[in-house]
Amino acid sequence: QVQLVESGGGLVQAGDSLRLSCAASGMPIGSYAVGWFRQAPGKERDFVAVISASGGNTNVADSVKGRFTISRDNTKNYLQMNDLKVDDTAVYYCAASFPPPWYRNRVPGTGRSEYGAWGQGTQVTVSS
Asked: What is the spatial distance between Cα 84 and Cα 71, in angstroms, rounded to a whole number?
């Protein structure tokens, strides 16, 4: 079973950048897809970005496209956030989806039900 731990959150000013990391243990990094979600106070947990298990395909929400980038290396998954806005303030979660081997190139959907493991979240606060 995969265990996920996010890091890299903090308090920044509008226009600044942050890079969130998601470290996973329990399964090889190429065997699961990773998505990022965020939840602002009083709101639903919304999809932000996802990378396929193979690492070759990604999808980014329209609301952050052009500012946020998802990536991975051999040990961690990352969410690079540039030109942050006050509306980006939220708790950010990484989540893992476990496709069969023949679907490793597939990008999971944006629904939370497609992800079977979740981290505890990291707070991102953007001030004006």
From this structure: 18
